[in-house]
Amino acid sequence: MAKATKRKGAIGAPQREIAYLSADERAAKGKALRDAVPRAAHAGWKPRKGRRDPVELSIASNEGRIADLVPIRHGRMSASAFAFYRGSAALMAADLGTTPTSGIRVQACGDAHLMNFGGFATPERNVIFDINDLDETLPAPFEWDLKRLTASVVIAAQHLELPNSDAARVAIDVVREYRERIGNYATMRALDVWYDKIDLQQYQDRTGDPEIMAEIRKRVAARIEAEKRKSAPDHLYPKLVSQEGAKPTIKDEPPLIFHPTAEVTPGLKSGYAEAIAAYRETLPAHVRVLFDRFHFLDLAIKVVGVGSVGTTCSIGLFMAADNDPLFLQVKEARASVLEPYAGKSVYANHGQRVVEGQHLMQTASDVFLGWGRGKNGRDFYVRQLRDLKLSAIIEDWDTKLLRQYGRMCAHALARAHARSGDAAMISGYMGAGQTFDDAIGEFAMEYSAQNRTDYRSFVRAIREGKVKAIVES
Question: Is 433:200 a contact under the CB 8 Å cutoff?
Fold first, then answer.
């Protein structure tokens, strides 16, 4: 007889008493879900009647952002259909909320486009490949992340002016890689799944092109050396800090780096003492010992990314000694774009939502990862600034490079989903054939056309003066 156990759900939600099920039994449960939502139901994309105007939704997503920075966000989104896609996670979340779902939930990234994957250093100083932006993380259907990733690969292919036939093949290959990786994780021991990591410097892909893998390893080695130099205190400190005056301060480089007013950051007069103390309490005890060696000196707003522009993102300068700086990035954490369609977070603080999601989805997370709430009521999370972080630079890629990178992203996404979700159920639902691959690939191709249409509407709104944009030189 199966033994009933009571445990906490894998993604934080309490579960009722359940019976132990083998991997094969859980896979069978996943397969049974096809009766309600066939795999072919995920194919294609057609906007529902009454779909919200994309320009209107983009404008609505600016609520609560720093008004002077919003035109910079619009300018970055207007650069290309690919840039628009990166900045319109809220728009796609609304669209995904209308699509069929299997009912299998995981801790989702929420914004799993290919530029939100990359390399970064672990606390042990190894360089791993993983999801590196989890601002929108929330428990949600596993398909939503996969659809956003696959569509991003197609849109990237179009941005690179690759043939549509190549874009379609790459999209299907990305889904196949995810499906096969999930199948592998479904057969692994739970601890082996948890400890699994993607070592960027030694990455192997048995079905990948050996020449392309060699090219990627060559590029990775060069990028790691370059990022080591950029991340080193001897590089960052003089680049970001002015020594003029009584104490070191962060250099102003408006409009992208500037010191905030007390209105924007009410804790300015006290040196953010309360917020720093609250953040400190979210760190593990052993990390607090390290953090206490550093003393806060300055904080400035720093514009980052595409989707985050206009939110209160800052860098804090801390010093342990004259030649011993620590730069912390303080990012505002707003409600996930998935929340209206997947349900509210179980965490009262959205900074905690992001941090807990990172710990759950990433193999290793920044040692200074923590959260808090400012006097202005805004939630935030904290991590090191540029700790050997590598993001993709796609501009000179061909089909082979895009395919291989897409496969790496699919591998990382499958690993993250296997940590929080039931890999056996997901594998059982997707199956061993190409039905699911073809369906998601078809969705990606058709959604890329929707993205182009929305982008054109956005650019037209800028041209007509309905949306203000600043294009940076």
Answer: no
Degrees, nearest 5: CA angle 174-335-419: 40
CA distances from residue 376 to 136, 301, 356, 394, 426 in whole angstroms, order as listed: 21, 15, 23, 38, 42
Spatial separation of the C-alpha atoms in residues 225 and 215, rounded to whole Å? 16
In DSSP notation, 307-347 reads TTTTS--EEEEEEEETTEEEEEEEEE-PPPTTHHHH---S-
Beta bridge partners of 383: 329
Helix (H, G, I), strand (E, B) or coil at 373: strand
Decide if 458 contacts 78 (C-beta within 8 A).
Answer: yes
Query: So what's the pLDDT on residue 433?
Result: 95
* Residue 127 · residue 121 · CB < 8 Å: yes
By CB atoms closer than 10 A (0-12, 13-18, 19+), residue 274 is: middle
Contact between 329 and 384 (Cβ < 8 Å): yes
- Inter-axis angle of helices 164-187 and 399-420, nearest 10: 30
Query: CA separation (Å) from 189 to 25, 185, 347?
Result: 16, 8, 29
Which of 33, 44, 47 has the alpha carbon at shortest distance from 98?
A: 47
Domain boundaries, the chain: 4-225+390-463, 227-384
Edge-to-edge strands of the sheet including 257-258?
Answer: 257-258, 295-302, 314-321, 324-332, 379-384, 370-373
Which pLDDT band, with edges at 50, 70 and 90, does 208 fall under? low
Kindly give, in sequence order, each residue whose CB lies less than 8 Å from that of residue 135, ignoring residues fewer than 6 positions away: 110, 111, 307, 308, 331, 333, 334, 336, 354
In Å, how far from its chain's centre is CA 133?
Answer: 3
Query: H/E element holding 149?
Result: helix 142-159
- pTM for the model stands at 0.92
Which two structure tokens, joined as six digits, stand for 44?
Answer: 């294609």
Higher-pLDDT residue of 223, 197: 197
Burial track 73-88 (b if 16+ CB lie within 10 A, e otherwise): bbbbbbbebbbbbbbb
- The verdict on whether omega for the bond into residue 255 sits within 30 degrees of 0, i.e. cis, is yes
Q: What is the pLDDT of residues 15-63, one digit of tens each?
A: 555 678 999 999 999 999 999 999 999 999 999 999 999 999 999 999 9
Decide if 417 contacts 182 (C-beta within 8 A).
Answer: yes
Using alpha carbons, list the distances in angstroms from residue 425 to 63, 142, 148, 177, 342. 39, 11, 21, 17, 19
